[in-house]
Amino acid sequence: MNNILTYTLFSPLVGILLLLFINKEKQSLIKYIGAGTSIVTFVLSLFVYFGFDAANTQMQFVEQYPWITGLDISYFVGVDGLSILLIVLTTFLTPIALIASWDSIKDRIKEYVSFMLLLEVGMLGVFLSIDLFLFYVFWEAMLIPMYFIIGIWGGKERIYAAVKFFIYTMAGSLLMLIAILWLGYYASTLPGGYFTTNLLKLYAIAPSIPMGIQVWMFLAFTLSFAIKVPLFPLHTWLPDAHVQAPTAGSVILAGVLLKMGTYGLLRFCLPLFPLASFQFTPLLATLSVIGIVYGALVAMVQTDVKKLVAYSSVSHLGFVVLGIFSMTEEGVQGAVIQMINHGLSTGALFLLVGMIYDRRHTREISQFGGLAKVMPVFSTLFMIVTFSSIGLPGLNGFVGEFLILLGSFNSLFLGSYVYAAIAATGVIFSAVYMLWMCQRVFFGKITHEENRSLLDLTKHEIAVMLPIILFIVWIGVYPSTFLKSSAASTKQVVTQMQNAKSGNLTPASVIVK
Amino acid sequence: MYQFAPLIILFPLVGFLINGLLGRKIKNETIVGGIGTIAVAASFVIGLGIFFEMLSRPIEERSQVVTVFEWISAGTLSVNVAYQVDQLSILMTLIVTGVGSLIHLYSIGYMHGDAGFWRFFTYLNLFIFAMLNLVLADNYLLMFLGWEGVGLCSYLLIGFWYDRNFEKGTTGDAAKKAFIVNRIGDFGFLLAMFLIFNTFGSLAYESVFAQAKGFSVGDNVMFWITLLMFVGATGKSAQIPLYIWLPDAMAGPTPVSALIHAATMVTAGIYMVARSSILFALAPGTMEIVAVIGLATAFFAGTIGLVQNDIKKVLAYSTVSQLGYMFLACGVGAFAAGLFHVMTHAFFKALLFLGSGAVIHAMHDEQDIQKMGGLQKYMPWTFRTFLIGSFAISGFPLLSGFFSKDEILWKAFADGAPWMWVIAALAAGVTAFYMFRLVSLTFLGKERFDHHHIHPHEAPKTMLIPLLVLALLSVIGGYVGIPHVLGGHNYFEEFLEPIFAGANSKMMLPMHDSAALELGLMAGSVAIGLLGMFAGWKIYTQKIEVAEHTAKKFSGLHKLLWNKYFVDEIYDAGIVNPIKQTSDRFLWKIFDVKVIDNTLNYSAKFIEATSNIFRRIQTGVVQSYAIVFVAGILVMLGYLMGR
Fold this sequence. Notes:
The structure holds two protein chains of two kinds. Chain A has helices at residues 4-20, 27-51, 84-100, 109-128, 132-141, 143-153, 158-189, 199-205, 211-228, 237-244, 247-272, 274-300, 305-326, 329-360, 371-374, 376-389, 396-409, 418-442, 459-477, 480-501, and strands at 60-68, 73-79. Chain A is mainly alpha-helical. Chain A has one domain (4-501). In chain A, helix 13 (305-326) packs antiparallel against helix 14. The longest helix of chain A is centred in the middle third of the chain and has 32 residues, at 158-189. Chain A is globular and about 75 Å long. The relative contact order of chain A is 0.10. By secondary structure, chain B is mainly alpha-helical. Helix content of chain B is 73%, strand content 4%. Chain B contains 25 helices and four strands. In chain B, the strands form two sheets. A two-stranded antiparallel ribbon of chain B has the order 1-2. In chain B, strands 3-4 form a two-stranded antiparallel sheet. In chain B, helix 10 (254-263) packs antiparallel against helix 15 and helix 14 (311-331) runs antiparallel to helix 15. The termini of chain B are far apart. Chains A and B meet through helix 7, helix 12, helix 14, helix 17 and helix 18 of A and strand 1, helix 5, helix 6 and helix 24 of B.
């Protein structure tokens, strides 16, 4: 069990290696290897999850091997309360995405499965790295498989969408790379210091960086993460990427990739640059709130179901960012659980949209109507996920939204009720856009003859959905199971921010050996 | 018995799960309907058991919290799934499960043969589950779960026949409207919760109310908390300005209208105000707003009811109006009177709706009362029970509605203002008039339906039994609260007294002992009611031309009422459409696509164009490189030589 994180992280590579020896004609074998590998990874991550001590705020299952010794860059991985749930979310959604695309992906299956597994390595690496350089490598590495997944298996405008996705993200990350190098260099300027990208060492010294420099570093990191989230007005790559990506790509994109942005804010921006964070809190909170309302309003008028769900993500992720910048335990806990919730609900919505697309080859809302009659199971599942997404109490979405709003309403860092009050209108608008869409797709009379013969979900498709539905209900009814994993780490971050605010934080001015 | 309180919640949940997961396969209507009905009846029995144990306990030991598990906890917030068993919650539980079981039973007959029979009972049980959470919760967040849960069920049940047309759209439109309008209210409720947590550091009633005792009357925070809560209440309980969803909610099957949109769910707002009575007592400003909104709603909704021709619409506006009375009571500080009306209204309004359901059933889904008439002959029992319900709602002396409405009127006069009494009494006259218009047009007079196609018949037993039970309750239900002035004893108020003790101590309402005045007002309101009843009956059975003549004479007013004061149209034109148009034409198509995205695309194009210029340098053609090379050398040589 000593190297469990490394095993989890690189286990998908074993699948890719295996695939190298398989003839590309053996399609079902390739699919089985893909699904099997990702399930093994999931099981490995469960060992991490159950071995994880939630009360301990230290990095756990830590592994460190020197990499570039002269610069103190190392292969350094670990988990804490902020990352544990995201890791399990990643390993949970990947097999679901792979199994869901069982029949819908027909060409270049070998490459497809390989890219999906490679993507998983990238995502896990991002959440596991506690060395900034290593983090950056995974952050960038993950772009490549996603680029190809959208660019090869996507829709008509896939090339435009893939390039846009790539360049948008890349633009942000380059600035982050500069900031990382700058941070490392800063460490070397301290008495007895040396260049390092070790996050734990930087946690200790970064807060003392002079404000003038801190602001720039904060902005470089934040821009990169804000693009990923995406925070208004940096969101326009998202609708294109989602609409063009194949179903599994959208599931992973919405389910996991976006969370890297919010995770990054929480993992790096806040604890490394507390003073700069305070300075930019009003700006970021304002953008989040605009995103919540704007995303919902634009979602409302979409004619394509998938685009609607994509814009709804802008709105939902706005909640997460608001929660993070509330810097209260309630708000940050809400943000952490909302990352998971959004992964489940929006992942599920994309799966469902994919299922109807496979049948009708359209996602235009106006092409449907009255589906409840011909596809009762599909409609029922869709409605459950809809209500999860619009935050109905008793389902998962509510827990996150409520905590975020409560936290930001009472946040001394935000210092105003206004953010939460405006954000709470998102509760109304989400009901409007989701229910209006459901109304036009599922209810009323069947208006298109071709919909009359649609087949309801197959057992295979139901099996893909059920695990997600299970968690949607579980988190809604008994969120403690999950909230407690992150409680201690969240408290630590919040306490640290409070100390920084009150001037009680004494950053080390000397780097630890 | 108290420790069994969670079972009250559990039974309907189990019923929901069984029918929801297996109902489609069971197919047998008796089993599916039986499971649904028994689940609710079982909760009723346990509720009764707790009620009787409560009566046997000394007053100070009647309230108890039963905790099940910790629901959400983060930072200093900790919310339990826990149930507060006390006088108020047990009263609501008994109403919900009692009337609920009767309506479940009725539905077995009413929904017979419907393809969605199992689905109907699934939703109905889920509704009872949510409603019980709402009334039994020991904290605001769990109440909110019930609050939104009943909204969900209301949504599902209004749109139950999702492929049917309803008015200008489909039933789905009505369902969506109900959910969204309710969400606007819930937005207020949410903010109220944040403010409560901010003020008291807790969402649990016990803690909040205990701390509230330390606040002084007129506190600004209390004003905002209660006002925001009341916004929630106007949504759920269909008050001005958010009442618009309830008339449309009639798109659902009639038992749903009876259970959810008359007897139980819509009274949730009154329950919420009553539950938080101490907070409201601290905010006289909000109380005034509550009273005025209630009064205004009672009157305006009543006037709309005067001219409607859909049997369920009339009842729907009547419900909105009656809910207004309940808020009026709460607004003047007579919380017990408000709840008294909640109870009697649950009996007679459920009765009236179920009666209307029997009529609609008999008339093959015809709901227009202009196409009915003379049904008394074909469905005598439905007629008799419906008549009892109409008498009760009109405040006919010694029936249940008389006692509860009269108490509200008296309190409005004594603790509110005389002008409130005048309007409320007028609204009572209006109620009596439209109810007897309804009775006359439906059951009396000439038969105006097509005998070739419609053969009215009496309802089956499963539908009649609930009617009879509810009729009985509509008659006797008021005797638990006979006013002192009539020499009775108000057991109802006395039972609930401990709940409102905190609020009463803050309000310090004046004492009134003018029996003569109270009796005089009672006589006045009874006279107005009787006049309304008589006029409604007389005009619509014998002098229909009077009604037609009046409608012509005041055609402007008639049009205004017929179109419900054009409120829906005003909302559409003033709010809904502007938001939709702005989002579509500006936010999406201009701001998102043109401004943000084009900025990016053009900056990309700009880079591409600039690069295109520099690209020309890298032609890869050796000859041109050589020319540049030679030119360079010549320039350098020239420079060197010229130096």
